[in-house]
Amino acid sequence: MINSPQTIYVIIGVILFTLMGISVVIFIVYYQRKQFRLQLKQQNEVQELKSVFQKQMLENSLEVQESVRKNISRDLHDEIGGLLSATKMSIAVLSRNIGDNEDSKEKISNAKELVEEALSQVRSLARELVPRTLESFGLVPAIEEFAQKMQQATGVKFEVRTVDMIDESDISPKIKLAIYRVIQELANNAIKHAESSLIFIRFLRKGSLFRIEMSDNGLGFDLDKALASKDSGLGLRNIQSRLSVINASYAMTSTIGKGSGIKIDIDL
Amino acid sequence: MVPEIMEEMVLSVHSIVDKFISYINKYPSTLIESFCVVVPILFGVFYLKNTYFYLRIIFFYCLMLLVMDLPMWYLAIQGSNNYIWTNFQEIFSGIILIISFKYLKEKIPNKIIWLMTIFLVFGVIIGFKILVTSSLIFVINRIIYIILSFIFFYQLLNKLQIDNLLKYPPFWIISGLMMYACGTLLIFVFTEITISYNNDKEVFDLFTRINDSFKVVFMLLISVGFWSFGTKEI
Fold first, then answer.
1. What is the CA radius of gyration of chain B?
2. Which residue of A7, A112, A126, B14 could cross-link A76, Cys pair, CB 3.0 to 4.6 Å?
3. Model confidence over B68-114: pLDDT tens digits?
4. Which residue in A1, A13, A25 is closest to B186 by CB distance?
5. Which residue, among B46, B45, B37, B126, has the nearest Cα to B89 in the 3D structure?
6. Which parts of chain A have pLDDT scores under 70?
């Protein structure tokens, strides 16, 4: 009999067991998704922490680098520069006391010239290591000074342009220094490796956006290859590190035979 | 002479068709239960190119069901008892499905596989029958399926290697197997009052239909598993 108690009990049992099976499957899907999301969230948090830590390490490393530069610059200027100045003065005293010996006079004069040259080089090196114009007058004047010096030293033409007046009051010294170093590195690359004859730098300020554009008419290069290369990629990776520390976004382009360019955007 | 033989053959075919139709009229769900296995086989043929071993085993399982159903149909149409084939089919199903768990990504310990196999062999030794359903084998198989499915789900949650379960074929297949085992366990535990041939026809038909429906669901979920292999997540 279909409606006998035994049959009904079995049917209820079948329904209960089936519901149990379905519940287990639904629970598995729900729990797995929940656990997976949790795991993913944890992984993202760890990744974020790692990235913050790496950035901090990078920042510290760059700070140490700048501090070492400052120390070297100060030592060069004060210690070596001082010694060379003292040597120059001693030579001057010696030249007055030497008498009429023409041969000795000429040798002393040569020595004096050499010491003056060394002193000039040491001072120039000390200035290059720490851009004092950057600290005293700001990024654009420092870049203009740098461009002028490079133009004089290498013969490569530099064009530095600013769209309207650039207000640097709210740009932190850290950002200014990073941009200065990046432009320095890119200019050196353009002159040394790309054999450029013209380097163009443009600054633009629009509200909180600070944009720097730089391009050259050099040989250009394969960006992916350069980044992968251990030697040539070092400079580019250094640029990337500096830009990542100041949260700048950038786009680098390069065409072989047509030069390279970079556009850096910083949201202040 | 030849026309007589032809006439006899035609009569014989007619008689088989008549018996087949009468059998289907008597047990309509059996036809669906028996031939629903064609669906996963077709899905398998279309989607299981370069598949991994677990899915091959499941595909082989479906083929085995189809092949072993053929003599059962023949005997049923002849009006002969075919329970021996049903019992053999259940034993082979148990062996194949237990082995299939060994080839899952979520490794089921060998000890458990062996233990389950011994459990099944024990059931076969003491519970094999020829003329009626070997309900003990059916019950043991279902308990084994439920235990192995739970272990699989535990390993799945423990390892958390799969991004999306719904694109993971073994999940569908084992979910289907567990539902099939859960839904039909009590039917075989209480064979005497459910699908025993001596029972009231209404009761027999009801539980046969329930059993057949669970098999159809299982086969459909295997098909979904094969289909989801198309969006690979091994």
1. 20
2. A126
3. 998 888 888 888 888 899 999 999 999 999 999 999 988 888 999 99
4. A13
5. B37
6. 1, 230-234
Q: Which of B183, B194, B200 sits opposite A1 (nearest CB)?
A: B200
What token pair was written down for A185?
Answer: 């590195």
Chain A neighbors of B176, CB-CB under 8 A = none
> Do B224 and B172 meet the contact criterion of CB atoms below 8 Å apart?
yes
Q: Taking residues B155-171, what's their average pLDDT? A: 85
For A2, which residue in chain B has the nearest alpha carbon? Answer: B203
- Determine the average pLDDT of the residues in B199-222: 90
Report pLDDT digits (tens) over A42-51. 999 999 999 8
Q: What is the pTM of this model?
A: 0.65
Tally of structural domains, chain B: 1
Judged by DSSP in three states, A194 sits in coil
- Give me the domain span that covers residue B53: 2-231
Residues above pLDDT 90, as percent of chain B? 50
Amino acid A233: pLDDT: 63
- Identity of residue B222: I
Residue B109 is classified by DSSP as P
Question: Which of B182, B190, B212, B217 to mutate to test binding with chain A, by most A CBs within 10 Å of its CB?
Answer: B182
CB-based contact B96:B88 (threshold 8 Å) = no
In this complex, the residue of A14, A20, A32 whose CB is nearest that of residue B157 is A32
Q: Report the SS3 class of residue B193.
A: helix
**Using CB atoms, which residue from A2, A20, A29 is nearest to B202?**
A2
Chain A residues within an 8 Å CB radius of B150 = 24
Q: Could you tell me whether strands A259-267 and A249-255 are parallel, antiparallel, or unpaired per DSSP bridges?
A: antiparallel
Q: Which residue out of B179, B204, B209, B215 would a mutagenesis test of the A interface target, given it has the greatest number of A Cβ atoms within 10 Å?
A: B179
